[in-house]
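Subject: Protein record for review, amino acid sequence with backbone structure tokens
Why sent: The fold of this protein is of interest and is recorded here as tokens.
Notation: Tokens come from a learned vocabulary of local backbone shapes, not from coordinates.
Attached in line: The record itself begins immediately under this heading.
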Amino acid sequence: MRISFGIPLIGAGFGGYFISPAVEVELRLLQVGLGFLLLFGLGTRVVALAALAAYLVGLAFRPLLLLQLEFVGGLLAVALVGSGKPSADHVLQRMAGMHGTLYGRIDVVYDHARRFQKWNEPHKRYLPTVVRVGLGATFIYLGLTQKILRPGIALAVVDQYDLTSVVPVSPELWVMGAGLAEIALGIALIFGFFTRATALSAIAMFTLTLFALPDDPVLAHVALFGMASVLLITGSGPLGVDGRLTEVD
């Protein structure tokens, strides 16, 4: 999760846009700084919340940032689970916990961090839930707004890449089918229904888009890949239909 959100932030900073390629606002130092801190895992929870705050502030001025709605669920998930290991946070915490180290004498965060981690430990089990809802909401938004309600852009993509030669149906049916597929994936993810299979389908869709549409901004999909990969590993987690079905069995 750290990597899949750190890399897009760094890429956005150097690319001259703010989180989404559709928002051409240069905030290079902010995004590159936040991105590298996430990659290193230094101050991870604080950095994730800072990145989320920057996204929400930007969203208030540029609604186009809804195209990267996954940043809400993804950054909340990073803030929930922290840096993990290996990470700078883990190394510094070990140094601070050792007796006789110089860093341990000057570290003023260690005790507070330990208390917070102890309090937060039971909540980590909700990581799949946060990721499911965040990724599912993104799918539903993109399917509705970019295809069903505003088919013009998607129709232009179908025409540009001659996608009707791949699946011989009308362009309108192409767009409608793609939109409904994204909405269906989103609903299944939110409810945690066949979560791993749905996540695998999402990864297949991202990969197909990546190779079939060469002009598509690759960095815009890295966070989505990361979130789907998490669900492929964890499954639905608590509060999901899959978990309820397992309990019944």
The mean pLDDT is 89. Residues 127-148 form the longest helix (22 residues).
